[in-house]
């Protein structure tokens, strides 16, 4: 979305009591494929960090961050500095999501290295170690396979102590990423899982690490309105048809149906629901969820 649309969505969410506004980090708009009208690169894909700085000055309560920043894009010292600076600009409301990246074509187009999955997860581990070290130690040194730091004096330290919320993005099938979240982070987030996958991954995480789910939504006041809105989204956002699966954690239906779906996720240990929003129609749906647990983390 444009910054104006992102700000409007964030202000609406803040007014309704939602917990956080977390922005995707992509050089191509996420989910875009070549068969979309206009092809790759035809939709807005702004850098989230300047947007987050702008949101920090226009909001007062809602938490702000990325979901998630691929480790292939930036050195961890840069990521740590940006997140700590955002924490100051927002008076202690920053969150930082870290992930291994997945969009190979995006990396090739913009000249980013895209190693094999194991190597990308190695980068995730080292970045988490560097970021948490910079935020908590002075001076900080690190001698890893990919990053080396020598007697680094890092400022500004985050406002939040011991640190801003750290989120590791992964999947229900990942093996190492949940372990890294358990060791270094506060939250592990998975995309479009089934209820059983949520239950299984929750059992693998320690109690102090919360499980969150990232999923699309389509909410309407009536079942007829839900169908109409879904048809519109499926036409303008083609990934909606591909993602529609009864076994995955979609939030779709009337407010009562959405509340039941959210309760089902909560029952298997999901602590936070992260709703995918990308247009004005989604902003119109937010009030229909404001009375459910989705609005309040």
Give an account of the 3D structure.
The protein is of the alpha/beta class. It has a domain at 3-191: Alpha-Beta Barrel (TIM Barrel). Helix content is 43%, strand content 19%. It has eleven helices and eleven strands. It has helices at residues 3-16, 48-58, 76-89, 104-110, 117-136, 176-184, 195-204, 223-236, 239-243, 255-267, 280-289; strands spanning 20-23, 63-66, 69-70, 94-99, 140-143, 148-152, 165-170, 187-191, 210-219, 251-253, 270-276. Strands 1, 2, 3, 4, 7, 8, 9, 10 and 11 form a nine-stranded parallel sheet that branches. It has a two-stranded antiparallel sheet with strand order 5-6. Helix 5 (117-136) packs parallel to helix 6 (176-184). The protein starts with a helix and ends in an 8-residue tail after the last helix. The model is unreliable at 32-38 (pLDDT under 50).
Main attributes of the structure:
297 residues, alpha/beta, TIM Barrel, 9-stranded parallel beta sheet, 11 helices, globular
Secondary structure elements and their pairing?
Elements: H1 3-16, E1 20-23, H2 48-58, E2 63-66, E3 69-70, H3 76-89, E4 94-99, H4 104-110, H5 117-136, E5 140-143, E6 148-152, E7 165-170, H6 176-184, E8 187-191, H7 195-204, E9 210-219, H8 223-236, H9 239-243, E10 251-253, H10 255-267, E11 270-276, H11 280-289
Parallel strand pairs: 1-2, 2-4, 3-4, 4-7, 7-8, 8-9, 9-10, 9-11
Antiparallel strand pairs: 5-6
Helix pairs in contact: 1-2, 1-11, 3-5, 5-6
